[in-house]
Amino acid sequence: MPSILIVEDEADLREMLAESLEQSGYTTFSAGTVNEARKLLEQQLPDVVLLDWMLPDTSGLNWLRQIRRIDRFRTLPVIMLTARGEVNDRVAGLDGGADDYIVKPFSLKELQARIRSQLRNQQQPADLERHELGGLVLDGSTHRVMADATEIALGPTEFRLLKHFMMNPDRVYSRGQLLDGVWGHQVFIEERTVDVHIRRLRKALEPVGKAGLIQTVRGAGYRFSLRGS
Fold it and tell me: Which CATH class is domain 3-123?
């Protein structure tokens, strides 16, 4: 039974989410502050985290940035639930490590669909193959990416995105095709989300001089190529 950590300071909303998710077959545990959430994570690793941005002790976004630097939580699916709905806020949330971003008020049906999408991504059969291209080594069995002796820290979405590109070098993908290939069909994600994750992937590859492998094809989309754009 999948478990979900709800980090939300509004008690009524927290209780409503827990009740709704438990009726749908999930196990939930809740926190009203980052400090409470931190203690819960030390005790149990959930399958998905629902994280509010505006929390009383520390912002949810700052905490997310902190835990993304810890190996144990690097691939933990996190969906941000927040009233901050401006484009810049969405970009900041995704750049900060969120796998998805939902603006309040939201539909419970949509939230559950997004949770199922994150769970499907986690439950896909492991790709045990190694993919070597352009000086990068992507190892599906260890979920690591290396450039020479340097490990590149990638979140789960960036890892899947890079794998998709490395398995199909030089092929140009539109944003819609990347959503289907990396996120899966029937996801409720805007196409601009792809741009955010492309930027995160390039930022991770930049210190090892590999950002140029992810190329923008104007008017068409993106590709992974050893040749110049």
Answer: alpha beta
